[in-house]
Amino acid sequence: MRVAAVQLNSTADQVANLAVADRLTRAAASDGAELIVLPEKWTAMGSEEDLRAGAETLDGAVVGWARAIARELGVDLVAGSILERVPGQEKLANTSVHVGPQGEVLAVYRKLHMFDVEVGGHVYRESALEEPGEEIVLSHTAAGVELGLSICYDLRFPELYRILAVRGARIVALPAAFTLTTTREHWETLVRARAIENQVFVIAANQFGEHPAGQHSGGRSMIVDPWGVVLAQAPDSEGHILADLDLERQHEIRARLPSLANRRPEAYRWPVEETV
Q1: Does the N-terminal or the C-terminal CB of the chain have fewer CB atoms within 10 Å?
Q2: 82, pLDDT greater than 90
Q3: Closest by alpha carbon to 43, among 22, 13, 23?
Q4: Pick the catalytic residue: 34, 40, 84, 130?
């Protein structure tokens, strides 16, 4: 199964961002990709005003584009994440949409973990603008391969990936806008760790470069196999990377080193109850 991760340097210009995403999605499909993943907030990066201006409902133009191009190209498309206007909700949602090759929306995942941190001298408070999701989402590709959905900061929460793996995920999509500082020091280690410990393929599509409002993303989009092997890694430029996923080898890894099967959830309690 051939897959692709698209790497972008998104700005506050939604029209320009969409044009680049369209071009690179078509290029990835032309290279044989059956599943394509875009990065986080690919439609708009910048200030709170920029993000609010770029937000849409799921029946808006951006998801409409995703549905149309997936149908035209006959691919599974994880349309990265967009800022979603949720009816009846004041704050926005950071939402990933999986669209199938018939143009149908197969799954919607809203980012669970808010990036409220201070790194590289910059304070981030996603929760000021965004409402966290409440649901772990497992989807399936057109070929029936189980596909887990996650977004950026979720990468630091291994319990999410373990639950996806236990539910059957064989691939996990990770749209991201990982900061430059954390990309250089943590990105590869974390992506490979999530792949190894859950014996899944991880398709990690990152933003890169400088964005409005003083934000910097680190690039290095990656596709990693269940043994932790980096199958492809992007340079610091716009483009796409490709890898062929050997699903049979994944079966062999899980059979020979059955760490998922060897779990003991009945023992994972804290504190351990004492008996008198």
Answers
A1: C
A2: yes
A3: 13
A4: 40
Encode 155-188: b = buried (16+ Cβ within 10 Å), e = exposed: beeeebbbebbeeebbbbbbbbbbbbebbeebbb
**pLDDT confidence bin for 273, thresholds 50/70/90:** low
On the question of pLDDT at 276 being above 60, the answer is no
CA distances in angstroms from 121 to 10, 66, 118, 215, listed in the order given: 21, 35, 7, 11
Calpha distance 101→72 (Å, rounded): 8
Instruction: Give the model's pLDDT for residue 269.
Output: 84
Q: What is the pTM of this model?
A: 0.96
Mean pLDDT of the chain: 96
Pairing of strands 146-149, 138-140: antiparallel
Question: Is residue 40 annotated as a catalytic residue, yes or no?
Answer: yes
pLDDT in tens, 104-119: 999 999 999 999 999 8
Identify whether the C-beta of residue 224 lies closer than 8 Å to the C-beta of residue 11. Answer: no
| Whether 135 is catalytic | no
- In contact, 135 and 148? CB cutoff 8 Å: no
Whether 90 is catalytic: no
| Residue 12 φ then ψ, to 5° | -80, -5
Which of these is catalytic: 56, 131, 152, 238? 152
Let me know: does 245 contact 78? Beta carbons within 8 Å: no
Find the catalytic residue in 56, 111, 131, 238: 111
Smallest CA-to-CA distance from 38 within 136, 172, 175 is with 175
Q: How far is residue 93's CA from residue 156's CA, in Å, rounded to a whole number?
A: 19
* pLDDT, average across residues 134-149: 98
